[in-house]
Amino acid sequence: MSPRRSYDQYCSTARALDVVGDRWTLLIVRELLAGPRRYTDLHVDLPGVSTDVLASRLKDMERDGLATRRRLPPPGAAYVYELTGRGRQLLPVLQALGEWGAPELVERRATDAVRAHWFALPLLRGLGAVDGAGGGGLVEVRLEEGEFHLYVGAEDVPVYGAGPAPGEPDARLSMDTGTCAAVGRGDVSVLDAVRDGRIEVTGEGTLAKALREA
User: Which helix (H) or strand (E) holds 122?
Assistant: First the structure.
């Protein structure tokens, strides 16, 4: 485990960066907001990180109370990492960073990796602003890059996950990646994209009805 480095400044921002300011740490948090993840799964969804750096960051996060490691019961019997309550408190931090950085997503570079679930947090912010959502619900999203699901209004549980919804969702949204990125940038709201036909909504849950009827 690497020794904790510090800015040695009596400032809450500096103290926060002492804990999460290292390269890759916040992106690991982004992945763990989807719930418990195996080391191998984290490595696959963090293209570019070395095995040594990933292992070091995870140990640092355990030491700093952001994540824990536990063994799944049989038949899984694998070790997984998951966020603590302190780690989950970084959700609005990541959403604010994503909102600030969204204007940089105008054009995808040839070297850019992409995973469908990386669009989850910006879209979650957009869905949370929908009036009449009835407290939220489970949403399945389909892009050409793949599928992911969101828990709108979730507290103390994973806020999203890769792949189809684990149960019948309250709403299914289908759109292209460009539309999803535009929502994340704030170029268009979720409701306006639905009205313009850029997002197709199916399902009979409260959230689906709120989206169709707004």
Answer: helix 120-128
Nearest-angstrom CA–CA distance, 192 and 214: 9
CA–CA dist 11, 209 (Å, integer): 46
- The structure tokens 């292209």 sit at 176
Q: Please, what is the Cα angle at 94 between 92 and 99, to 5 degrees?
A: 90
Q: What is the pTM (predicted TM-score) of this model? A: 0.91
User: In sequence order, what are the beta bridge partners of 57?
Assistant: none
Sign of the four-CA dihedral 90, 91, 95, 96: negative
CA 174 to chain centre: 18
Question: Per-residue pLDDT averaged across 66-80, rounded?
Answer: 91
Strand partners, 148: 141, 162
Question: Tokens 């019961």 belong to which residue?
Answer: 73
